[in-house]
Amino acid sequence: MASVWDTVYGDGYYQLQVLLAKKCARGSGTCKEKRILDAEICLINNRSSKATRVGVAKDSTGNIYKIVFF
Hints:
- About 20% of the residues lie in helices and about 40% in strands.
- It has about 70 residues and is of the alpha+beta class.
- Strands 1-2-3-4 form a four-stranded antiparallel sheet, covered by helices on one side.
- The longest helix has 8 residues, at about 1-10.
- It is elongated and about 45 Å long.
- The protein starts with a helix and ends with a strand.
- The relative contact order is 0.22.
């Protein structure tokens, strides 16, 4: 999913942020139309602020999603 992270958050984000994250989760699911959604969520530690949760997902048809937490 490295390319998905870089597509959503910019070149090098996966290497500079996701690989250094101490907590990450992965999951997948299937909808009624038999499409598969793979997702990753990480807790990213920022030096200037508190840690933030970010995530990305990609489905079996090639759509890419940004996961946002409020």
